[in-house]
Amino acid sequence: MAVVKATNIIKDYMLNGMVVHALRGVSLDFERGDFAAIAGPSGSGKSTFLHLAGCLDTITAGTMNVAGSDLAKLSKKEAALLRRHHIGFIFQAYNLIPVLSCVENVSFPLTLLGVSKKEAQERAEAALMDVGLEDMAKRRPKEMSGGQQQRVAIARALVKEPALILADEPTANLDSRTGKEILELMIRLNKEAETTFIFSTHDTMVMDYARRVVHIRDGQIEHEEIK
Fold it and tell me: pTM score, two decimals?
């Protein structure tokens, strides 16, 4: 069964009194273990698709099933629970909590799930080890480079072992060398855990690493590459 199954998705929203057609009948399926990119210029609809799949926004029309749940049938509480249990997010701005240490940032999603403090700490430390930051567990985000902060964000996304990780322009604030290291790290973790990764990007390096690239423009799919 597909981790994400989108059928004829339409997303409209109002901007300055005008209707903007962000997605115009997009149909896409993503299977377990996919390492895929949705590519396109700014305003193409790629981030909108990720926000819908991540239950951060609602669909205007069409159907979307994520991790076995029909999003249109979920209450706000049910959508929040789906997001909390089954979806990890990696953002270009990292979105770490500044007053928390690395290990506290990583363990935070587990505390929301009711995991004990001891287990959350142990799992967070293991996740930091997976991304090569076990020696920086007590540092706060401001004490780390952009690449290191993105590694913490990846550990935080992975620590609850989600079915799906959504990465919105994850290399946008990184230099090319660091971006390459981050992508290679995510490929390794994708293969080890068979977690589905979906990126939104206009970075050609991300497209080169992805095993599947869906090109989108003006809210519609132009073409798709399978490698």
Answer: 0.92
